[in-house]
Protein: Gfo/Idh/MocA family oxidoreductase
Amino acid sequence: MSVMNFAVIGYGGMGSYHVHTIMPEELIHVKGTYDCSNERQVISEEKGHFIYTTYEEVLNDQEIEAVLIATPNDSHKELAIKALRAGKHVVCEKPVTLTTKEFDEILLVAKETGKTFMVHQNRRWDPDFLIVRELYKNKQIGDLFQIESRVQGANGIPGDWRHLKVHGGGMLLDWGVHLLDQLLFMIDSPVKTVAADFSYILGDEVDDGVAAYLTFEGGEKVIMEVGTTNFIKLPRWYIKGTDGTAVIEDWDLSGKMIQPTYAPDVLAPTPIQAGVGLTKTMAPPSEEATKTLELPKAEAEYTGFYQNFYDVVRHQAEPIVKNEEVYRVLKLIETIFEAGETHQVLPFE
Ligand code: NAD
Structure:
């Protein structure tokens, strides 16, 4: 099994993470890196990498079989098309492009050249998502009819280019693309309607947060939320099924599931004082009425992404991240932008 020679384009936060953390040495050899910033070139050189001084130099290197594109979002299209035309396979960071029109252009060239183009939708391997997917498939709390997926921070929009529209900044394109990719990958019915609300609290020209409300033909209702001004955050996942409720607090996988016991002779809940009133409806259920369960286990090897890319290129395996799936997510993102701008509930699919 011969290793695949890669060049890494953009040795910033994510490019260096690929090199040092994700790319399995037994499959991938990083022959060199190229970054348009001199500072990043120096840092990469200090790490012992060969430095390409221009992108053309990468494209002309016959030993390079594939490139990783890990540059700001607006540059993906041009870099990808050039690489495909130079006969290279491409791994591209998310979001693949800013519009479906741009993605169409890449797909056309990938088809013409017969080269593999695959997007790094790595959060399909996130352990918290794998648990939710397990719940969805195996129905431990019944059919999931309300799924709330949230990531919330309090540090504002990070870095430089993420603040600017021209570079494809903003949180829908940054984190939203991950959460939507997970949801569409998991839920096996078409999206019916889309509503959305963006936040611009920090005064940037791009969104610093977004909430999208999706309904699916299968009956699922989804809230997808990204925030960067949340000093107190809500759980990563809150899920209601026809037979219980599950919560996953965070990436540390803390959380639980609570199910009804359906025990006969369950005592009615004792009314509680709530504010200035009394309630039985909102009182905690009596002890014998529910049981608390641990979240199911679900694991996957993260190196699966590059293993799959390697197998797609070398052995014509089926890609785990399919371009048509990525396209559907991008189309949904376009609809979310439109729904937010027009304050309308829009049909989808
Ligand atoms: P970054 O700013 O840390 O790094 C980008 C690097 O690209 C910089 O070093 C910059 O100098 C370089 N660059 C810019 N334009 C270039 C060009 N035309 N040619 C060569 N180099 C160029 O940004 P980042 O956080 O690493 O993000 C890069 C990409 O990775 C983005 O598309 C982002 O959405 C994605 N990303 C993905 C994940 C994930 O989990 N999949 C996480 C973070 C970032």
User: Anything to note?
Assistant: The chain has a mean pLDDT of 96.
